[in-house]
Amino acid sequence: MTRPRPAVGVISLGCPKNLVDTEVMLGLLSRAGFAIVGDAARADVLLVNTCCFIEAAREEAAEALTEAAALRRAGRARALVCAGCWPQAEAERLRARFPEVDAFMGPGEVADVVEVVEGALAGVRRPAPTAAPDAYLHAEGLPRLRTTPPWSAYVKIADGCSHGCRFCVIPRLRGRYRSRPLEAVVAEVRALAAEGVREVNLVSQDTTAYGQDRGGPDLAELLCALDAVEGIRWIRLLYGFPARVSERLIEVIGGVSRVCHYLDVPFQHADPGVLRRMGRPGDGEVYLRLIARLREAMPDIALRSTFLVGFPGEGEAEFARLLAFVEAAQLDRAGAFSFSPEQGTPAAEMPDQVPAELAQERQEALMAAQQRISLERNRRWLGREIEVLIEGQDQRGRWVGRSFRDAPEVDGTVVLEPPGARLRPGEFARARVTAAKPYDLVGTLICR
User: Fold this and answer.
1) Residue 239: pLDDT band by 50, 70, 90 thresholds?
2) Roughly what angle, to the nearest 10 degrees, separates helices 16-31 and 113-121?
């Protein structure tokens, strides 16, 4: 009788781009015969895929590794593997802090996960990643065990980054920007549609740079090709770069049927001096003109952005300009995080560092302003009909889903009345919006 392969328990941290890497590793391990378990206490092998983009991400990863290391010390797990960006950045430090880890692997070694896990089980210590961070690019044919709901998936269209933002470690950790071939992305989306996926969310460090490293096709052409995939209802675009949102891209987002009128463009700041120190082009006036063009082409477009507060040299005047921009932009969604000096980035060595407490105060002030704006933007939908992708029920029996305006995990939801309606997760329904909150809408079901 063949002895079953060991069971693997995986903890995936960080952004959806990291989650796609985790899902590919799960697919490869499953194809090799490993059992995949959701309970870490039942796993023979623990795999923690880490993020280290900011201090908060490292803290989360450290907490997960501490819990996994305890299981390894107690003999509950036979091997512990630490993957992702953190070992690529600080393998020596992690080795000293977590001696229980048997193997470290970086983003460039996703396709090698079976070999790494088998080596760890055999007692082979792997003290650091061995491949360049840009050695891996998700290729057609690699298996993928998705952890998202059956009706929704992230599709990574490129990896790495070639921007020179002075606060960011991603180019060092993930290498140069590399686009996947258009045919490979389309083939993956067709396969997902055949599995029952109805929503795909396109991700990369900069989706708007897609194809430029290969000399084309570009993002607009990719969207047109994906629009022809039968079975997909929504295609959502995440993580664009403001200087690369072209008129052609705006035309395609507004003109093809399956692409959501949604765009996530991290502006990071609006003060021209702060943006120059960050190594980013544009300024608040340029960004406002871009927002105006988007809304002229698509009056219902949902715009999301991210801001970095407390960057070195951000004084009261610079922060005031950022707040004024947020008020003028009237974005539907926005997030903010406080600057933390990341080792190896030029920003960490810049003068005029902003005290952490002050940066935190500014973050809270910006988010308070945005919460009010988000409520006002949501109120614009009162009395209007909206399509909802059903995802589950709340404690009162009301169905809860998302509209085209809501990316998974980061945006709001739509709660449907009355409770107990006969719906199923993964199907679409229409509702008339009856109430608006800062992040969520409430609607009355009008048809399926």
Assistant:
1) very high
2) 60
Average model confidence (pLDDT) for the chain? Answer: 95
108-129 burial: b if 16+ Cβ within 10 Å, else e = bbbbbbbbbbbbbbeeeebeeb
Place of tokens 């023979």: 44
What pLDDT, on the 0 to 100 scale, is given for residue 4?
A: 64
Q: Say if residue 230 is exposed, middle or buried (CB neighbours under 10 Å; 0-12, 13-18, 19+).
A: exposed
Task: Reduce the DSSP state of residue 60 to 3 states and report it.
Answer: helix
CA separation for the pair 126, 104 (Å, rounded): 6
- H helices of 228-355, in order, are 247-255, 272-278, 284-297, 316-329
pLDDT of residue 398: 94
**Cα 111 to Cα 387: distance, rounded to the nearest angstrom:** 38
- Which CATH number among 3.90.1150.10, 3.40.430.10, 3.20.10.10, 3.40.50.12160 corresponds to the domain 7-121? 3.40.50.12160
Task: Say if residues 440 and 428 touch (Cβ distance below 8 Å).
Answer: no
Q: Does domain 152-379 match CATH 3.40.50.620?
A: no
- Phi/psi of residue 146, each to 5°? -75, 145
Paired with 442 in beta bridges are 415, 435
What does the pLDDT look like over 247-289, one tens digit per residue?
A: 999 999 999 999 999 999 999 999 999 999 999 999 999 999 9
The tokens for 142 are 């690699």
Residue 24: phi, psi to the nearest 5? -70, -40
Per-residue model confidence (pLDDT) at position 249: 97
Tell me the fold of 385-447. Answer: OB fold (Dihydrolipoamide Acetyltransferase, E2P) (2.40.50)
| Cα–Cα dist 277/167, whole Å | 9
Mean pLDDT across the stretch 192-213?
Answer: 97
pLDDT of residue 1: 40
Give CA separation, 133 vs 117, 297, 421, in Å.
19, 39, 49
- pLDDT computed for residue 448 by the predictor: 55
**Predicted pLDDT of residue 163:** 94
